[in-house]
Amino acid sequence: xxxxxxILLCFLNGDSQRRIASYLKVSWNTVFRIVSAYMAQKLEASxxxxxxxxxxxxxxxxxxxx
Length: 66
What we know:
The chain is mostly helical. 64% of the residues lie in helices and 0% in strands. It has one domain.
């Protein structure tokens, strides 16, 4: 199962949300929720790349994959 970090790293690499969903085999809605939460926090790319999945989920209140 994909992690929040994998989704964000793909997004920061310029992949579309639909492509990320297809590649990581998660729903587009899951990708959308995680990317939206990331964007709402106004984080920089360097902020996301150095964080663990636990950091992303806890500190930045990103949604769990279900």
